[in-house]
Each structure stands twice: as C-alpha cells, then as structure tokens.
Automatic annotation (TrEMBL):
Example of a GO cellular component annotation carried by this entry: plasma membrane
Secretion signal span: 1-18
Main location class: membrane
Protein name: Copper acquisition factor BIM1-like domain-containing protein
Organism: Hebeloma cylindrosporum
Length: 209
C-alpha cells in the first residue's frame, strides 16, 4: 500500500509540474505554472510594449515539458481581448513528439486568417495540450510586412521525430473541423475539466486504500 501511495503522489506531481513555456514571441509576462490552464496564463490585459512580428515567414518557439503534445495558435484583432470568444484559430492544430525546444512556422499570410495588415495590433494565444488539459500563453504583437525575426532568436527542434505539422488535434478531438471564424475553443476549454476529475479520482483512490 505504501508504494501505491508513493506512486500516486509521484503521478500527481508529474501531472501538475509538466507544462510548456512560450519562448518567442515573448509572452505577456513570466510563466506562471499554476495559471497556465487559464486564459493567457492568467495575464488578462494586453501589454503596451508589443513585439513586432512578421506578416509572413514568422515562427513561434516553445519549450515542451511533455513528451507528446498537440498545439495550435489562436489570434484576436481586438486591442485587449478578454475572452476565448474573441479569438479565432489560425491554422490546424498539430501534434509533435518530444520534450524541449520546438520552433513552429507561423506565417499569417498563408493562414486562414484574412485581412491582417501591416501595423495592425493582434494578440496570439498558444494552445498546448500535453495530456494534462489545455494550457495557454499569450503574446501581444504588432504585425509588420518589413520586420524579420532577428537571427539571434533561437529556432531549433529538440527532436527530429516531430511529425504531422498541420494535422488536426487527436488528443482533444475538438480541432478536427477547424472553423477559422467560429472556432471550438469552448470545447478545448471543456477538457481542462479532466484535471479536477483526475484529482478527484486520485483522492477517491487514496480514500479506498
Ligand atoms: C498598437 O498598440 C500600441 C501599444 O498598445 C499603441 O500605442 C498603438 O497606438 C496601437 N496601434 C494601433 C494601430 O492600434
Ligand atoms: C515589456 O516590458 C516588460 C517590463 O519592462 C519586459 O519585462 C518585457 O520584456 C517587455 N516585452 C517586450 C516584448 O519588449
Ligand atoms: C469578445 O468576447 C466577449 C465575451 O464573450 C463578447 O461579449 C464580445 O462581443 C466579444 N467581442 C468581439 C468584438 O468579438
Ligand atoms: C483552412 O481552412 C480549411 C477549411 O477548414 C482547411 O481545410 C485548411 O487546411 C486550412 N488551412 C490551413 C493552412 O490550416
Ligand atoms: C538580438 O539582436 C538584437 C539586435 O538585432 C538585439 O536587440 C537583441 O538584444 C538580441 N537578443 C539576444 C537574445 O541576444
Ligand atoms: C520543427 O518541427 C516542426 C514540426 O515538424 C516543423 O514544422 C518545423 O519546421 C521544425 N523546425 C525546425 C527549425 O526544424
Ligand atoms: Cu503540463
């Protein structure tokens, strides 16, 4: 029984400790692990010092602490979006295997989001699911058709086993029919319920011992 308890606690610790960190473009604020399951990692207001970001040929990079994950990008053109309803999906979600740094193309000019223009302020929200529910980080941007991401910004992949860029989400199922203008973010948000249910299940399991 003791080893069962140790296993359960180890499982719970692993489940809440492993998330992701957006590296580029810079997120709204320093990563707050406990808030990552919530809108914009808990940063509810757009920053005033936005990052320039290219309309075409851009990328975003992140550090994954999960070995297998699904991610995608949402965008809002509001100056200070407050709700998932204010975002739409940029491209299909994709699934990657591997922990560590990953760099994913983010080319708005080739996306399903139309009528973005140079000088426009937007907010992107990265949605990431590594198996412990949807996680979110936001970056506030000013789009530019003349800006190029500096070459000193790291853009590498930790593994070459990364697969199926452009594939739809398989772990959530919610992204299987991407609708750029009326996305299913509510559905994504729903599965964050998996965390409380997992915790409740573990507590019941402990009680049963
Ligand atoms: C974009 O955001 C910046 C910083 O918040 C602001 O100064 C600027 O006026 C905004 N530009 C547009 C076109 O809204
Ligand atoms: C914006 O300002 C904050 C506070 O000074 C800083 O930590 C952050 O790096 C800046 N972000 C950008 C994109 O320059
Ligand atoms: C932003 O989201 C809020 C909350 O759902 C909604 O009331 C509002 O109409 C949205 N604004 C726009 C411009 O979509
Ligand atoms: C744009 O949307 C269509 C229809 O939903 C989809 O088939 C296509 O893959 C999308 N394009 C990208 C780049 O995600
Ligand atoms: C990258 O280079 C730019 C100038 O092109 C500089 O402002 C920035 O501080 C550099 N960043 C790093 C992380 O070295
Ligand atoms: C990293 O992997 C993704 C997914 O396969 C791919 O789209 C991207 O181009 C790769 N980036 C680099 C720098 O190799
Ligand atoms: Cu996690």
């Amino acid at each position: 029984m003791h080893s069962t308890l140790v296993f359960l606690f180890a499982f719970l610790a692993a489940a809440v400790n492993a998330h992701f960190q957006l590296q580029y473009p810079p997120p709204r604020g320093v990563f707050v692990e406990d808030d990552e399951p919530t809108f914009c990692d808990g940063y509810l207001t757009a920053v005033s010092n936005r990052s320039e970001f290219p309309l075409s040929g851009g990328f975003f990079s992140l550090n994954s602490e999960h070995p297998k994950w699904t991610a995608g990008v949402l965008i809002s053109t509001l100056p200070d979006p407050k709700s998932f309803n204010n975002f739409s999906q940029v491209n299909s979600f994709f699934q990657i295997q591997g922990e560590g740094a990953f760099c994913i193309p983010l080319d708005f000019s080739k996306s399903n989001v139309t009528s973005l223009s140079t000088g426009q302020n937007v907010t992107i929200q990265i949605v990431f699911d590594g198996g412990d529910g949807q996680l979110y980080q936001c970056a506030d941007l000013t789009l530019s058709n003349s800006f190029t991401i500096p070459t000193n910004v790291s853009c590498t992949n930790a593994t070459s086993t990364a697969t199926s860029s452009g594939a739809t989400s398989t772990s959530t199922g919610a992204a299987s029919t991407p609708k750029p203008s009326s996305l299913g973010v509510r559905e994504y948000a729903m599965s964050s319920l998996a965390i409380p249910f997992t915790l409740i299940g573990a507590v019941l399991g402990l009680a049963a011992l």
